[in-house]
Amino acid sequence: MSFAADVKEELIARMPSALHCRKAELCAYFVYRGSLMPDESVEFVTDQEAIAKKVFTFLKKSFNIGLVSVKRKAEGHSRTEHAVRVPDPEEAKILLDGLSLGVSFARDGKLSILSEDIFSQSCCKRSFLRAAFCMGGTMNDPKKSYHFEIAVPEDSVGRIIAAHMSSFGCVPKWTERRGNPCLYLKDGDGISDMLNVMEAHGSLLRYESERALREVRGNINRKVNIEVANIEKAARASDRQIKDIELIRDTIGFGTLSEDLRNTALLRLSHPEATLGELGALSNPPLGRSGINHRLQKLCNIAEGLRSL
Question: Whole-model pTM above 0.90?
Answer without folding.
Answer: no
